[in-house]
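This entry is passed on directly below:
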Amino acid sequence: ICDLSLLMNPETYAYVLAPGGLYLRAHNNLHSERLTLMPWGSKVLVEQMPQINTMTVSGIPGTMYSVRFNDLQGYAFSGFLGPYAPPGHKMNAAEYTAHLQELQETSVSGNIEMPQYSRTISDDLSAPSVSESLLMPGMNLNQAYLVAQRLFGIPEDLKCPSVYGPENAVYPDKKPKKGIWKSELAVRRADGQIQEMTYVYRSKNFMRRVHLAPRENGVLIQAHEESIL
C-alpha cells in the first residue's frame, strides 16, 4: 500500500516516477481522456488522495489521485507518484540524499521525513567493497524500485515487477552488456504483495547486489559492491 498520504499536509506535492512519464486524465479512471503527458520527475500538487488501492497498472497497485499540473486539473495513477523528487541523471545515493535535503530546506509545503543514507567502505585491500543503505520513508517497494534503478544501475529492461506472479521468481536481464556473467532480479511474493526484491550483477572482476525490503515506515534499499581481484 502506498504510504504517500502519511506524509501529506494541506499543500502537498508528489513527483512522477514513471520512466516514460504519466498521463494526466480528465476523470478518475484509466479510460478517460488524456489531458497531457507529465514527464518523469514532474512536480504535481495533490488535491485529493483516496486511501484504498482500487486498480493495478502493469501489476502495480494504486488508485487515482486528484492532482494539478501546471494550469491543468485532472487525475493521475498513484502507483507512479512518490513523495520525493527522483534522482537526477548519473546522481549517486549520497548526492541524491543531499539534493533532497536542499529541496526540503527551500520548500514552502511543510516538512516531511527525509530519506536516511549511510555508507561503509571496507578496509580490506584484498577485497575492496562499499556498502550503502538508503531508507525511503513513505514509499512502497514499487516506488522505491524506480528510484533504485536510477541510483544503482539496475537495467531499464528489468521493469518494476508485478505484484502478481509466483512466490519466488527470477527475471534475467534480456539484453546484458558484453562481459556480464549475471544480471537478474529475484522477487519474493506473499499474500498478494511483493515482500522483497534483489538485483544481482556479476562480471569477471566486479559484483553488485541491490536489495529492497519494506520497513514499518517505508522501504530500505541496501546496495553492496565489491571488486573481485
